[in-house]
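Ops channel
N.P.: pipeline sanity check, posting one input/output pair.
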């Protein structure tokens, strides 16, 4: 089958091959035929070496498709089900799951580099985030396959599996944006624009969207932003919108120390700075001890939008059906598998929001 392979040492180009095999399914696992998969900034970070990888890897984590095989003991899904790939599958048994924090479950995540999910020729290979959706087939624990209605297009379902659920979840689950509040969103990729939508859904009165790429500004306004500015205009907008007090909630959806600092600086005392972007381990954020106490701001990580996909996916689908969640506007291009390297380059340049590979193309 076809798959995008990242060899040890990283890019700059992916090895697009047709001799890759998905291994399994074993007990408790399912094989999914991937029909659509998104090209996300986290994928770019893995290719570039900003996020960790080990050995030979199949890239991709945002996908949707059809269950083709089930291993022994699987009862939660069946062959023929349309499913979204959940890259933090919840076991339902660990303390985090029992406490209602399934996005922190490490039962399956702890084995990311312990079990090879693919073979590239004769070489064992791992799947990014335990998945590897830039492949025509993947094998994952059954908990990672979340059923979705058959009439939802696969490209929409793929984005619901990560970018949309992470962004909307950051606003609704992590920050719990309040009606009438003021919000700023730094970074207008697929996740950041989904944060904008989540804040609008939650009833924020003012949503200031920030990105240096002006081509994204119109989309942000369409999706619910009340003001859109470039970074150099943020301070003046902060003063005008909040009378210098600071925003109630500021989301950083880039994953860089400089934008985290910028988000922190425009958050009001008692407000929340929410970290949504996935950054590098060596990119250090420096906030002094005095500030941490006396500025009294909250620094909140938002892993996967604090989402439980089995709980949240039906809600997101309902919002989409009601016309309150726009997925189509997040898709810049639908592409073929053999265009993946070009897609990575376009994402790196900031030319696109979300590109989606359609494997039937």
């Amino acid at each position: 089958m076809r798959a995008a392979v990242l060899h040890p040492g990283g890019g700059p180009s992916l090895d697009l091959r047709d001799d890759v095999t998905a291994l399994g399914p074993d007990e408790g696992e399912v094989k999914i035929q991937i029909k659509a998969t998104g090209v996300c900034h986290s994928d770019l970070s893995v290719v570039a070496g900003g996020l960790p990888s080990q050995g030979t890897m199949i890239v991709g984590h945002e996908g949707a498709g059809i269950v083709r095989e089930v291993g022994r003991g699987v009862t939660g899904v069946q062959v023929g089900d349309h499913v979204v790939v959940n890259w933090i599958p919840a076991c339902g048994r660990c303390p985090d799951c029992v406490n209602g924090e399934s996005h922190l479950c490490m039962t399956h995540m702890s084995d990311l580099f312990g079990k090879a999910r693919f073979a590239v020729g004769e070489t064992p290979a791992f799947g990014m985030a335990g998945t590897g959706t830039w492949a025509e087939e993947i094998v994952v624990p059954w908990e990672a396959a979340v059923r979705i209605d058959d009439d939802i297009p696969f490209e929409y379902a793929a984005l619901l599996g990560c970018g949309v659920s992470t962004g909307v979840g950051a606003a609704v689950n992590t920050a719990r944006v309040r009606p009438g509040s003021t919000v700023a969103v730094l970074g207008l990729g697929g996740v950041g624009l989904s944060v904008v939508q989540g804040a609008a859904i939650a009833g924020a009165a003012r949503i200031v969207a920030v990105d240096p790429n002006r081509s994204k500004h119109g989309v942000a306004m369409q999706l619910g932003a009340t003001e859109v500015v470039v970074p150099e205009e943020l301070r003046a907008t902060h003063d005008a919108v909040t009378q210098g007090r600071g925003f109630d909630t500021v989301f950083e959806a880039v994953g860089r120390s400089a934008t985290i600092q910028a988000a922190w600086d425009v958050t009001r005392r008692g407000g929340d700075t929410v970290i949504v972007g996935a950054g590098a381990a060596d990119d250090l954020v420096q906030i002094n001890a005095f500030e941490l106490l006396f500025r009294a701001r909250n620094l909140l990580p938002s892993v996967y939008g604090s989402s439980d996909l089995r709980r949240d996916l039906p809600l997101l689908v309902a919002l989409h059906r009601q016309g309150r969640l726009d997925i189509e506007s997040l898709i810049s291009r639908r592409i073929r598998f053999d265009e993946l390297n070009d897609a990575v380059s376009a994402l790196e340049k900031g030319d696109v929001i979300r590109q989606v590979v359609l494997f039937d193309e």
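N.P.: looks fine end to end. Residues 3-161+326-358 form a domain with the Quinone Oxidoreductase; Chain A, domain 1 fold (CATH 3.90.180.10).
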